[in-house]
Amino acid sequence: MTSIAGQHIVVTGGCGFFGAWITAKLLREGAKVTIIDAEIVKHRLEMTLSAAQIDEINMLRAKIDEPDFINTLVSD
Q: Which numeric CATH code is attached to 8-75?
């Protein structure tokens, strides 16, 4: 199995139920995480992560069906 430690992973819908749990697992395994969500709401993240862990996450408010945003995100 390949390690994800040090990799940068984008989680769409990261503020939702599944996204919060996936983000928690990725952070525990050492990945850098960027969350993209239509609304940045942290209460689900607060159930699975510490405040320090939440501060490590890059959170972007956007919809994944915005082509200009996605193109910029991928190129960065």
A: 3.40.50.720
